[in-house]
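Students often ask what a 'structure token' actually looks like in practice. Rather than answer in the abstract, let us consider EF-hand domain-containing protein, a protein of 140 residues. Its sequence is given first.
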Amino acid sequence: MDKLEQYERVFKHFDGNGDGKISAAELRQCVEEMGEELSEKDAEVAVVMLDGDGDGQVGFDDFVRFVEGGKEEEKENDLKEAFKMYEMDDSGCITPRSLKRMLSRLGESRSIDECKVMIARFDLDGNGVLTFDEFKVMML
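Now compare that with the structural description of the same chain:
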């Protein structure tokens, strides 16, 4: 079963009346089936946030965007954690010195000049250090 088929199965479970849309009431019911509570107001807010075409319900495309977006958020968080390992003193950037230090910890000995060259390859603004956004471009 591929990913899209799995999404369809979950979507159909949420879509209690089979009309191809998930209403706030259907969302609330599924959340309660999982042993959690979701107020009517919170369910309505969730549907409004997910509703891409403004019809007041969550369609399959909206649902897929939501599920895939969660995975993107996970990737972003993982990249932030990796970035923190390379930056030094919570400076918000990776310097040649901090890169050298982390590479040494990983068993790769590099000179400061070699680290400068490595950083320059992805240093989009040319300031000699990598910001998180530049790091993200490098990693993706």
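One point worth highlighting: Helices lie at 3-14, 24-33, 40-50, 60-86, 96-105, 112-120, 132-139. Ask yourself how you might have guessed this from the sequence alone, and why that guess would often be unreliable.
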